[in-house]
């Protein structure tokens, strides 16, 4: 009924359950502080995890929002961590704030938000992971 951290574990468990039912073995998720990715390690056993976080400089110039010690912990536990510019905003958001007009990628983002912020984020982090070269089962299947 309400957004927020109280839903994270339940959502991850539901994603893992559905993934298993579909025969999937990979989960791509959004994380800022690393907290969601750490919870996924508990809730999503048996899945390869890719954690996508904000680009460096999102909050402070040249700094990652994901603390380095958390990044090391996650990668040490087998999580692939992707730090990338938002696929559905990036440069266009900066331009739209300064210049009026229509921007196609922002229209896509706003359309996805009609289905919920989480839907937009799910599509966005999947594109960001793919842009970073993270292999996923569907892409590997197409290449074989």
Describe the structure.
The protein is globular. The mean pLDDT is 85. The chain has seven helices and three strands; from the N terminus they run αβαβαβαααα. β2, α3 and β3 form a beta-alpha-beta unit. The longest helix has 15 residues. It is mainly α and 144 residues long. Strands 1-2-3 form a three-stranded parallel beta sheet, sandwiched between helices.
Number of helices: 7
State the oligomer.
single chain
Q: How would you sum up the major sheet?
A: 3 strands, parallel
**Overall body shape:** globular
**Structural class computed from helices and strand pairing:** mainly alpha
Compressed to H and E, one letter per element, the order equals: HEHEHEHHHH
Q: Tell me, rounded to a whole number, the average pLDDT.
A: 85
Radius of gyration over C-alpha positions, nearest whole angstrom: 16 Å
The end-to-end distance, rounded to whole angstroms, is: 43 Å
Question: How much strand?
Answer: 5-15%
Beta strands, count: 3
Name the poorly predicted regions: none
Strand order of the largest sheet: 1-2-3
Provide the helix percentage. 40-55%
Q: Brief description of this entry?
A:
This protein is mainly alpha-helical and 144 residues long.
Give me some keywords for this one:
three-stranded parallel beta sheet; mainly alpha; 7 helices; 144 residues
In terms of topology, how is this protein built?
Layout: H1 8-22, E1 26-30, H2 35-43, E2 48-53, H3 68-76, E3 80-83, H4 90-98, H5 104-113, H6 117-131, H7 137-143
Parallel strand pairs: 1-2, 2-3
Helix pairs in contact: 1-2, 5-6
